[in-house]
Design goal:
It is a single chain. The protein is of the alpha+beta class. It folds into 2 domains: 117 residues, no CATH class; 110 residues, Sandwich (Immunoglobulin-like). 32% of the residues lie in helices and 27% in strands. Strands 1, 2, 3, 4, 5, 6, 7, 8 and 9 form a 9-stranded antiparallel beta sheet that branches. A hairpin with a 2-residue loop joins strand 2 and strand 3. The longest helix has 24 residues. The protein is elongated and about 85 Å long. The relative contact order is 0.12. About 14% of the residues have low confidence.
Length: 240
């Protein structure tokens, strides 16, 4: 028994009209029904991945899909163009002309679903952050030329501090990010800054009405978890 061409099964999965005899065969042949259902799952996954709950992936994600599938956009109306909705597909060699773009289109849908979900799971695509307050970080006299920026953000019901430090610092030791009260009578460590930029979750029990100052210090590997007293930059957060 002959089966449906794969491109015809793909068109049926996309909701396109196909020849009546092909449709009748698809309804009676278990093998072809399974193939159509496989294409339908790819379509559903792709459409779900384009939901408004996700941010649009960066351009390089789609570029990667195109490179992986060797996808090239054909001129409108060319031999490789996908058929328009409602187009009747005839039997014969004309279908074979559309085989490559149809497989690429469905392949792109499936690949997009996998890549978008993968990027979401790995943190490449994240919920939108709302900036609550910002601070300009000024250098201390001992650190001439040092400066930086900080922002308090709310993301998905949680808060985080984003910092950037521009300073010439020694190779030994490490930099640590802190939240201080306005009078510097109390402080909370947010973590170690590696490089010039960092994102630091704020513990839920920290009172952000009281801890309004961002400080980045130079620390030595002496085992003391307290502040070294050697601040590089510091600044007060204010509503943006």
């Amino acid at each position: 028994m002959s089966h449906l061409d794969a491109d015809v099964a793909a068109l049926l999965a996309l909701g396109e009209r196909i020849a009546p005899e092909d449709l009748a065969h698809a309804e009676s042949c278990e093998h072809c029904r399974s193939e159509v259902h496989a294409f339908q799952r790819a379509v559903v996954a792709g459409r779900a991945a384009s939901s408004d709950t996700l941010l649009a992936p960066p351009a390089h994600v789609w570029d990667s899909i195109a490179r992986e599938l060797s996808f090239e956009q054909s001129p409108a109306g060319g031999a490789d163009a996908a058929p328009a909705a409602g187009h009747h597909v005839a039997r014969g060699s004309g279908r074979r002309l559309r085989r490559r773009p149809m497989f690429l289109a469905l392949g792109a849908v499936a690949a997009a679903a996998v890549i978008v979900v993968g990027v979401w799971a790995s943190g490449g695509i994240v919920p939108r952050a709302d900036v609550v307050s910002e601070a300009t970080l000024d250098g201390f006299p001992e650190w001439q030329g040092a400066n930086g920026e900080a922002a308090l953000e709310r993301v998905d019901g949680h808060t985080q501090v984003v910092v950037r430090l521009d300073a010439s610092v020694p190779d030994d030791g490490y930099r640590e990010v802190w939240l201080l009260t306005a009078d510097a009578s109390d402080l909370v460590s947010l973590g170690i800054l590696e490089g010039e930029d960092g994102v630091f979750p704020v513990p839920d029990d920290v009172d952000l009405d009281a801890f309004t100052v961002v400080d980045i210090s130079q620390e030595s590997a002496d085992g003391d978890p307290g502040h070294s007293g050697d601040s590089i930059v510091r600044g007060s957060l204010s509503s943006s």
